[in-house]
Amino acid sequence: MVSRRLFLGRATAATAAVSAAAVSRVALAALPEAHHQPSAATQPPLLPPDGRPYNPVVTLNGWTLPWRMNHGVKEFHLVAEPVKREMAPGFTARLWGYNGQSPGPTIEVVEGDRVRIFVTNRLPEVTAVHWHGQRLPNGMDGVAGLTQPAIPPGKTFVYEFVAQRPGTFMYHPHADEMVQMAMGLHGLWITHPKGRHPLIDPVDRDFCFLLNAFDIEPGSATPKVMTMLDFNLWAWNSRVFPGIDSLNVRLGDRVRLRVGNLTMTNHPIHLHGHEFMVTGTDGGPVPRTARWPEVTVDIGVGQMRQMDFVADAEGDWAFHCHKSHHTMNAMGHNVPTMIGVNQRDLAQRLGKLIPDYMAMGEHGMHEMAEMEMPLPENTAPMMTGTGPFGAVGMGGMFSVLKVRRGQKAGDYSDPGWYEAPSGTRAYEWTGALPEAPAAPAGAASPAGAGTTGAAATEVQIRKPGGHHQH
Ligand SMILES: [Cu+2]
Q: Main localisation, per the record (predicted)?
């Protein structure tokens, strides 16, 4: 809050210095409040205060920007600025965002609203805001150099247009885009239909989030902005599991998921236990005759997808990107595959050179999820999300849809873990086991691979605590 006051003072001074003659005190006083969000927790939906009813969205680990009405215009104030974003408990990144967080706040309006957005630039370089998917006057499209001059640091620009189409949209810079997107500058925009819409069904729970990715060295906090593909943090709204909040709904709720992709690759987003219909894109609602059921929807770069389903199955249902490397956090890629490699001899010899060398991965990598690995400070654990039965073995783009009979209407609080009724959970077979088939004659035992000697086995040595890249 202190920083906001400082900022407003500074912005006012800067504006006054440049154009004291042209801008009256009244106009300066007219700048709407720049609301600031200090928390990375999912905030309660912002109920419409102006008597135009709609069911507000829940921004996963985010919030909706309050506005004010000014002679029939909805006025918002976005501030592009460096932020500290907690991406998971124990791991905070230095990103760029809006109004205190990355992503910026969700802007939520109604079809037909006239909207005026003040954008103040507190970044160290120029920026501009593009309103992805909106029908608007060309000069409001926010492409620096093409449709407007870039917004210099310290300056405030005003965008104004009518939200013509209902749907799921986003906003992001169109100025030094590679850097500004890699730093986390973007946000969601939701336009609710005015009254009943033939292709947009009312829902009880309406969740939204952006897919984003960062490359942050373990132990550091600032993304490497030159990375093109090899990111190590795959995030939903700049959070990684176990830092992503669960999606809590009531049994029988009609649920909508709105997801936009601002990464450099596609993400097949997969929901367990239910089928959904893709009911809309950033191009608008999908005609009913063009919908089909899915359990995974691939969301391409720069695309948005809106999925509807009825949450009719109780439980804790995994909800995640289906690219397996996207459900991991930093430090996975440079680890050599060690499955089937007998490391006993190797570990002994390496131990003489590197005292804290650990032999890992001989039986897969799950053991790493259960091990308390020493990590550099300010590092997201690689895959230590924990459920009621131990390590989930996931990080990154993963969360849980919690469907409960007892969840109250309007209650988004976490109901805890699901307790399956007796007889409905996978269980251990305690009867006789089949004998293992005999190995064909002449086949080398997998354990033999490690006994061929150090000369024949090239091993990349990585020490816990000194991770490079991941
Ligand atoms: Cu993915």
A: periplasm
3 state DSSP class of 254: strand
How far away, in angstroms, is 327 Cα from ligand 1 center?
8
> How much distance in Å is there from the Cα of 267 to the middle of ligand 1?
4
CA distance 77 to 328: 35
Phi, psi of 145 (to 5 degrees): 85, -30
- Residue 191 sits at the vertex; the CA angle it makes with 186 and 197, to the nearest 5 degrees, is 150
The pair phi, psi for residue 353, each rounded to 5°, is -85, -40
Task: Say yes or no to pLDDT of 15 above 50.
Answer: no
* Domains along the chain with CATH numbers: 2-206 (2.60.40.420)
- pLDDT band at residue 410, thresholds of 50, 70 and 90? confident
Residue 449 backbone phi and psi in degrees, to 5? -60, -35
Closest by CA to 42, choosing from 464, 468, 421, 412, is 412
Q: How far is ligand 1, taken at its centre, from the CA of residue 145, in Å?
A: 32
- If you ran DSSP here, which 8-state letter would residue 413 be given? S
* Model pLDDT for residues 261-297, shown as the tens digit of each residue: 999 999 999 999 999 999 999 999 999 999 999 999 9
Q: What is the pLDDT of residues 300-325, one digit of tens each?
A: 999 999 999 999 999 999 999 999 88
Q: Cα(247)–Cα(407) distance, rounded to whole angstroms?
A: 12
Three-class secondary structure of residue 351 per DSSP: helix
Quote the CA–CA distance of 60 and 44 in Å, as a whole number. Answer: 10
**What confidence tier does 172 reach under pLDDT thresholds 50, 70, 90?**
very high
Ligand 1 centroid distance, CA of 234 (Å):
7
- Measured in Å, residue 298 CA sits from the centre of ligand 1 at 9
CA distance 406 to 412: 12
Please state the pTM of the whole predicted model: 0.81
CA dihedral (261, 266, 271, 277) positive or negative = positive
Total count of residues recorded for the chain: 470
pLDDT digits (tens, 9 = 90+) for 121-164: 999 999 999 999 999 999 999 999 999 999 999 999 999 999 99
